């Protein structure tokens, strides 16, 4: 862990070291922890959800043919909520008996784009992002034409009603609430022009206002999924955004357009305080797409990173 600001030192455990607890995935995403002692993580290109048992260390297939599952969450009754972001293009809930309940697959009579990430609020409402990634190509599902005119953030009320709460972001991605749920944070992919996290005030009527740019990843970093801890810090999946340098450099006698930022410098988890200042960095050997807090004390950081799932104990606890 790199301390970028003295305020981050309190979250660092000197004797805690990084663990690769599972590997063998093609692109790991959407980890979610269950108090029974396991983590579910999506392996999108392999179209499956994997299960890591922290008591036995076993890493097994939880669900094959998983609808190209991406983001996952746990609702207030301990049920799995999943964004199936390609082909089916829907948000589903896994009931206690294993049945699948469809929560959303369309809006105003048209199919959703590619549900990406999801969070459950304390009032049991389900909020999710709907960018185009799952239908843009063949790597994470199947290419398809979008039916929605915009890429939205939606809210599913406890009554099942679906509302588009944001319609002006270019490919919204990760999202999370502040600990008091008075603010919603949403990643915008590349419309500002860099990847950014926007902050919104959440009204009593569930409307969003006061749009403010909290974090700008600049022209090298790639924000993806993130989680908020009890102190309001944002722990963000981080890596290179794939942007190439404007001019080629000489590599072994050839002119090569290299990445603006080196993966070995950017891969990991960047931590920002509630004011949007970078205060810490967890360096990883692979790019981190998403993460979750878990463990019996909610202080074990699980990080879904390319082919692997990593874990690290920290002096911080997930907000929910």
TrEMBL record:
SUPFAM superfamilies: Calcium-dependent phosphotriesterase. Signal peptide: none annotated. Residues 27-306 form the SMP-30/Gluconolactonase/LRE-like region domain. The keyword Lyase does not apply. Pfam families: SGL (PF08450). The keyword Amino-acid biosynthesis does not apply. InterPro entries: 6-blade_b-propeller_TolB-like, SGL, SMP-30/CGR1_Lactonase. Keywords: Hydrolase. This is SMP-30/gluconolactonase/LRE family protein. It comes from Ramlibacter terrae.
